[in-house]
Amino acid sequence: MKQNNGVSGSVLVVGAGISGMQSALDLAESGFKVYLVDEKSAIGGTMVRLDKTFPTNDCAMCIVSPKLVDTGRHLNIEILTNTSLTALHGEAGNFRATLKQKARYVDLTKCTGCGECARVCPVEVDNEFDAGLGSRKAIYKLFPQATPSAYAIDKRGISPCRAACPAGVNVQGYVQLIKAGKYTEAWQTIYRDNPFPAICGRVCTHPCQSACHRAGVDGAVNIRALKRFAADRAYQDLNSLPLPEVEKPRDQRVAVVGAGPAGLSAAYQLVKKGYGVTVFEALPVAGGMMRVGIPEYRLPKKWVDLEVDLLSRLGVEFKFNTRLGRDITLESLRQDYEAVFLAVGAHRSSTPGVPGEDLPGVEQGISFLRRVALGEPVTVGRRVAVIGGGNTAMDCARTAVRLGAGEVYIVYRRSEAEITALPEEIAAAKEEGIQFIMLTSPVRFIGKEGRLVKIECVKNRLEYARDGGRPRPVPVEGSEFTLDVDMVILATGQQPDLSCLNGSIPAGNTIPADPDTLATGIPGVFAGGDCVTGPKTVIDAIAAGKVAAESIHRYLSGQDLKEGRQFRVPEEKIAPLRQAPHEIPRCEPRPVIHLDPRERVKGFVEEAKTYTAEEAKKEAERCLNCAVCSECQECVRVCLAKAIDHEMQDGELEVNVGAVILSPGGEVFDPAGLAYYGYGRYPNVVTSIQFERILSASGPYQGHLVRPSDGKEPRRIAWIQCVGSRNLRLGHDYCSSVCCMYAIKEAVIAKEHSHGPLETTIFFMDMRTYGKDFERYYRRAEEEHGVRFVRSRIYNVEEADNGNLRIRYVLPGGQVQEEEFDLVVLSVGFTAGEKARELASRLGVETDPAGFCRFNEFSPGVTSVPGIFAGGVFAGPKDIPETVTEASAAAGYVSRLLSAARGSETRVKEYPPERPVHKQPPRVGVFVCHCGINIGSVVRVPEVVEYAKRLPGVVYAREFLFTCSQDSVEEIKKCIHEHRLNRVVVASCTPRTHAPLFQNVLREAGLNPYLYEHVNIREHSSWVHRDRPQEATEKAKDLVRMAVAKVRLLTPITQTYTEINKGALVVGGGVAGMTAALSLAEQGFQVSLVEKERELGGNTRHLYYTLQGSDPRQYLNELIDKVLNHPLIQVFTGSQVVEAGGYPGNYHSRIKTPEKELEISHGAVVLATGAREARP
């Protein structure tokens, strides 16, 4: 390392598309450490989504893949994916950048990219990379050739169903596992947090369903029925049921008082942690209200007994008929156990205080249900009234019907809108003939001969509070009436019976406990469930037990009871609905089948049926996967590398850099708001980026040209230009630069993909073909490929009955025309992305009215903030060649700024020792590339591979979809080691970009890089013989055979190194030449600038103003002055280079000046000799 003179030798490049990668590579090769940051999980930007590039029709992936690999493997480029720049402090040369790194949930250092995780992941969502045409899993690789090649997990908060579950059960997780047919795994997911899946699958009040986003679309997912299905399926084979592992036994013991849902839930969680747990229960059976408070027709006892038995199998000890206060005391428990959990429930009925409550025939609802559940003899009257409107009231009424009551009434003091029972319970009661008497209160119970005979009632009206609270029933004067009954069941509430505490805890109606930790005022004593909150639901009690178990564990471990715990899900963490409601296909919930009411009232047989497997799958498929990743843990189960970490947290990183290059790119315009095009309504109207993915071999249709609606091959395709560009109403008055050319390219390439005749039509306003060879490309498309061009304005696009699309348009002469097409492609323009705008605002970088970065017209790449530079589409719409040029320019500006720190923070790559192979017989490895479908659709690649295997000297041959991708490169290196290869042949596309890549692979594998041969079967076979696949295949075989024959004869070449002349020769003294000379000189290099004219300036000397109103002559004069006065620049005007020779790094040129000829030495040459206007 060298001294940096107080300037940082590192650079931050924000955005890792082709622009960011080019800047990063230029800088890294120039001696600077680069932090390459991108918000996505892999680098590549938009270019990696394209099928081909214009005007050469090269495979986009073939061009960009070496950049991906070089960037990913460069020693001095640190790639930071899932990362964004949040703050920047300091000044040019010394910045402090704050980066936010979103959790990837996959360890990059461990992931092998095998894809097993994605294979088992049950969650499928739209694939943004394919612009929504395909799907991907929640754990995914952005694209097959992604760099880094590791997977990432998409998490978007906590699903609302899971957030609404008091016990925190992973609802989305088990629903997705049911969808995938993994029923036991679904049960395990539920059982992790809730030991009663079968019970809750029948009687849970399902707050998860109430929170389901689908409820606002076409009905919530029937989550409770799915839970029941998973449990019933899992319990079909109890012997193979995978119960959770229990930790190593601990010495501490815990007493749980009460075998209801709260107590049993706590016991379950504690026994898993290795504690000895004893549950004390006053009743002869376990289950609490689940066992003695919920009727058999809703919850058969066998399910309660089964799930209690599972707790016994895990190690929970039960002591029945043991009442607190009678058989044991709190003090005795505290002496014998290290902690106590009180979960005594709320088993005492609350009475309304109506005169006559003590008459024979007036029953308490809780005791009534208990006696029925325990099999005690119970007699009901002929006319039964149940007072109350909760689930207990419904249970009492429906039980009375089953016990033989003739008429049963529900008497409730409010309206049905305020009734607290579940809607399905109310509906079932009505189906069974139970009558509802609303807005009615009992005034007194009237007896005759010591027996209840009627109820005196009064009608109510509701009085609504100003604060919007629950309305209060107010008696209506003079509305009294009587109701003849011979039995009343009071179901007006319940409360805990705390007499068992004998005053050991000061308590009123409930036990006082911390609402979060459930700790009481007595050390080591905790309380939860109904005895703390008053009567609530089964799932609330289960949640309380789970919370108490964690608190007890912390207490016994000496930890703080609250630190680091989340007792409620913050609203901002709950995942919103990802789709607009109109985008979700309608699909009504599948109802649970119930027994016919006339049959079910005859006894206590379970009334509801469990879903079939097909019904469960269909219902689970309705889940919208709001949080994307469901955390079902399937990926963890199959990952042998142990790379997945669902607990990974977002992080923050600070880095010191000397300069920043902003290359965050832009966004493609979303045409959904332009209703007249039909995008988003008609499936066969697609955007240009979607069409690129249709054509791509790695796209949703593997490169087959089909339309989305029905998979048919189109016969007529239309392109509509300037969608989202040149539109004043949208505020997009600019041209997006690339749309004309990519539409021509797509129209030409589509014909190559079509198996039959294909008519392609481009509707345009103006055809802008201003780049090198662009006009020729346009003419060839029209004249050679038959692309039809129609100058017009589009009126609208409408869908026909057959899915085709009718385009109405106006010709320049005013004639209105209409045509029908199979597919319509909208040529969408670029927009400045919202995130890029926010980034610019955060850093104080000026933008233009459209949101693109504002530059000085004569200094493209230089932003309004010193030390911050920009490139790519962030600086305005442009094509790939212009993007790459601008990216290198931005890197050049940085190199000038930080030249003093060059090499101060970089490392030098070290290669392993070269294996001596000169005495070994040739062991050739042949690797043949499909190049997506660019080669594979013409050349029969497997046939070529089999042919190669039989060639002399070949010991290994293999095919790849893309040989140049990061994972393929690593695989080739691995094959060299495993098969002891000492020579390599790669048959793919151009050696211009790919040969250096593979030669470097040989060096990394310990082979001499010159023991390599490259075969260009893309250009020499599949391209030139596209219509003759047999000939193309045979030619590819010949080319491979020749390459193998040649590589067998190759011998290692020893590289020699020589000093590089650090001077440069710039030929041409126009603005380009002078700028290049000044850039090199400011980086400390000696420059010789040669201009054939007598003065500097070139064509700019004849310009007097620009379209933006700038003065080019003032700029030119200032530039000339800087060049002439720079000590490292020697200017030769009126001079020419007459002779040149040498080799890279050491050239010798003879220059003829007006005075004499002289010879100069230099290591590099820049040709900036300008051009003349084209003349017809």
UniProtKB/TrEMBL annotation:
PROSITE patterns: 4FE4S_FER_1, 4FE4S_FER_2
The 4Fe-4S ferredoxin-type domain, residue ranges: 102-132
Keywords: Iron, Iron-sulfur, Metal-binding
Gene source species: Desulfofundulus thermosubterraneus DSM 16057
The keyword Metal-binding appears for this protein: yes
One GO MF term: iron-sulfur cluster binding
InterPro entries tied to this protein: 4Fe4S_Fe-S-bd, 4Fe4S_Fe_S_CS, DPD_II, FAD/NAD-bd_sf, FAD/NAD-binding_dom, Helical_ferredxn
Pfam families documented for this protein: FAD_oxidored, Fer4, Fer4_20, Pyr_redox_2
Official protein name in the record: NADPH-dependent glutamate synthase beta chain
